[in-house]
Amino acid sequence: MSTLIIISILPIILLYIGLYKGQKALLPVTIIGLLVALGFGISQWNNNAQPIYHGMMLFDNFSVVFSSVTIISTILIVFLSKDYFEKISSHIAEYYAIILFSLAGIIVMVSFYNLTMLFIGIEIMSVSLYILAGIKKSDFASNEAALKYFLMGAFSTGFLLFGITLIYGASGSFNLEAIRNFVVEHPHNIDPMFYTGVLLIIVGLCFKVGAAPFHFWTPDVYEGSPTLITAFMSTVVKTAGFAAFLRLFTACFAPISDFWVPVLLVITVITLFIGNITALYQQSFKRMLAFSSISHAGYLLFAVVALGASSANSVFVYATAYSIASIIAFGALILVQQQSGSDNFESFNGLSKKNPFLALVLTIAMLSLAGIPLTAGFIGKFFMFTGALNKYQVVLVILAVINAIISIFYYFRVIIAMYFNDADRAELVIPVYYKFVLGLSAIATILIGIYPGFISGLI
Amino acid sequence: METLTHNIQAIPLNHYILLSSIIFSIGVIGVLIRRNAIVIFMSVELMLNSVNLLLAAFSVYRGDATGQVFVFFIMALAAAEVAVGLAIIVMIYRNTNSIDINVLNRLKW
């Protein structure tokens, strides 16, 4: 609870600091505030949480774990923002404030116990992100990304709301427990309205997490937004989207899984193939990462398809591995982009000669995203596939393995560019903050890959 | 208030569901086929308002106020969305002198 309060008040303090020209204090205050929020979050661990505020929110272990992983990812991204926003505008307090408002929405999304809070959380997060996507006001790509994201986001909210309304009409409540009881008490004669509602909620949430066939906005928005914001969207926001997805389906719709599993199965397979095959022929590294995030959404959907006791755990491990690796990839991209002004694969040519450290951490990130053993990505995929096999989804796992093999091709393109293609380039100056974030993330990736035990047993 | 509730309940619930679904579909079709950003925006609002209507109808039929409270949340957040959305459209208009979404083709759609 205190986590949410701190993260809601912190941005207002930041706005005041910005008003009184304390630009230097913004980054430290943000980091300290987030660390305090993280501490309060972790202190809620295992204290038999009950729903609070008339059953609106529930800060259980699931919510603590996902709040923590989103807060930690945000801290890493905020570190990368050192000297980044100054290039865009002199009013940088607003950017930190909006990122934190978005994070507050995310905390609501992972802790909701009532469909009202799900809707409010998603909206607080999305409205902040519409602004963040468009912060480069004179850059046309950024404008376009903001408008596309806004129109598609508002459109998907409509579907989500219609779904929520139909479920309310059938069950008479927004409370997750009441809806679950309704489903359990009427196993055979549920109103068709309820099923339509579930389908519309699936559509709305798939839009938000960028799963095919509702993914078409993702590549454009990710490519057009400022790289740092793309990093935030593809790590923290995606994690939160899946946490909300999983929480809703575990809490409410698990008893009628026969109805929605086939639908999600089809969505998962389409997402995997579209994400991976389109990523193969991208020339821009940033756009490739956008498509790879679509394919990772496919892997994350495994946990919902094979809904069970271990689903939350596998989403947690996978999302952690994916977030850390993506932060490295986007951090490296920001540095390379600042030097060469382009985000194509060619701008990574010969990076290993001048910047062996950057090339090494980026290689670790790519190996983790591709799911090579001894990295965190492998452990994540392992948990996902085990969960699916326990539900006898053998065909799904075979298709996913084929996709994992396809993904190796495009992840290795950047490694080949860095180590085997020669190019005349000057040495990149890596700021201390970047060294810290990149090094820490690379160590975490390897550590989780070798000893998965210390995060895999949490929930 | 009592008579109002009775009047609403005099019409079968299915009619409200049908009406809302039709309005919602008009909104969806509007988003998909119109090219003007403002009109798309209005279609989205139409979708949200059909949801509001349906929520109010369900709420009256069940004699349960939570549905109507939800309507207030939708209205408040839709207003926030409008503020941000119109700002984005103004930003686009300043850069391109157009709000036709066909000009948004610098990135592959």
Fold blueprint:
The complex is a heterodimer of chains A (459) and B (109).
Chain A: H1 2-19, H2 23-43, H3 61-80, H4 93-111, H5 115-133, H6 140-171, H7 176-185, H8 192-209, H9 217-224, H10 227-253, H11 257-280, H12 285-305, H13 311-340, H14 351-354, H15 356-370, H16 376-390, H17 394-420, H18 432-450, H19 453-456
Helix pairs in contact in A: 1-2, 1-4, 2-3, 3-4, 3-10, 3-13, 4-5, 4-10, 5-6, 5-10, 6-8, 6-9, 7-10, 8-10, 8-11, 9-10, 9-12, 10-12, 10-13, 11-12, 11-17, 12-13, 12-16, 12-17, 13-15, 13-16, 13-18, 15-17, 15-18, 16-18
Chain B: H1 2-10, H2 13-33, H3 37-62, H4 66-96
Helix pairs in contact in B: 2-3, 3-4
Summarize, please:
By secondary structure, chain A is mainly α.
Features:
heterodimer, A: 459 residues, mainly alpha, 19 helices, globular, B: 109 residues, 4 helices, 0% strand, elongated, NADH dehydrogenase (quinone) (non-electrogenic) activity (chain B), NADH_UbQ_OxRdtase_chain4L/K (chain B), NUOK/Mnh_C1-like (chain B), NAD (chain B)
What features would you describe in this structure?
The complex is a heterodimer of chains A (459) and B (109). By secondary structure, chain A is mainly alpha-helical. Chain A has one domain (2-456). Helices cover 76% and strands 0% of the residues of chain A. In chain A, helix 12 packs parallel to helix 16. Chain B has helices at 2-10, 13-33, 37-62, 66-96. The longest helix of chain B is centred in the last third of the chain and has 31 residues, at 66-96. Chain B starts with a helix and ends in a 13-residue tail after the last helix. The chains are: A mainly alpha (459), B mainly alpha (109). Chain A binds chain B through residues 116, 119-120, 123, 127, 130-131, 134, 137-138, 140-141, 143-148, 150-151, 154-155, 157-158, 161-162, 164-166, 168-169, 172-174, 193, 216, 219-220, 223-224, and chain B through 17, 24, 27-28, 31, 37, 40-41, 44, 47-48, 50-51, 54-55, 58, 62, 64, 66-67, 69-70, 73-74, 77, 80-81, 84-85, 88-89, 91-92, 95-96, 101, 104, 106-109.
